[in-house]
Design goal:
The strands form 2 sheets. This protein has a 5-stranded antiparallel sheet with strand order 1-8-7-6-5, with no helix packed on it. Strands 2-3-4 form a 3-stranded antiparallel sheet, with no helix packed on it. The chain is built from no helices and 8 strands. The termini are close together. The protein has one domain. With about 80 residues, it is mostly beta strands. Helix content is about 0%, strand content about 75%.
Length: about 80
């Protein structure tokens, strides 16, 4: 089941070696630990760069986006069993 979320989230991420890696995020007052980054890719909205991440907490998968020009993270989608 895919659920469109499109909500801002707080993210703990590492920025190392020219790469961004989400480590955890806070959504609706609950902390989700990122156990794996399954896919990371780059896109643009006009001239505004956007980084996309497909991550998992071990139970569900989530699609996050990061806009560095605005320093904004969004939870875009939730992929859940059921």
């Amino acid at each position: 089941m895919v659920e469109q979320i499109m909500e801002p989230v707080d993210v703990i991420a590492s920025f190392s070696g020219g790469q961004i890696r989400p480590r955890a995020f806070l959504w609706r007052k609950r902390k989700y630990m990122v156990s794996s980054v399954n896919l990371a890719y780059f896109g643009k909205d006009g001239k505004d760069p956007i980084y996309f991440f497909s991550v998992s907490d071990g139970a569900n998968a989530y699609k996050l986006s990061f806009r560095p020009s605005k320093m904004i993270w969004n939870l875009m989608e939730l992929y859940a069993e059921g």
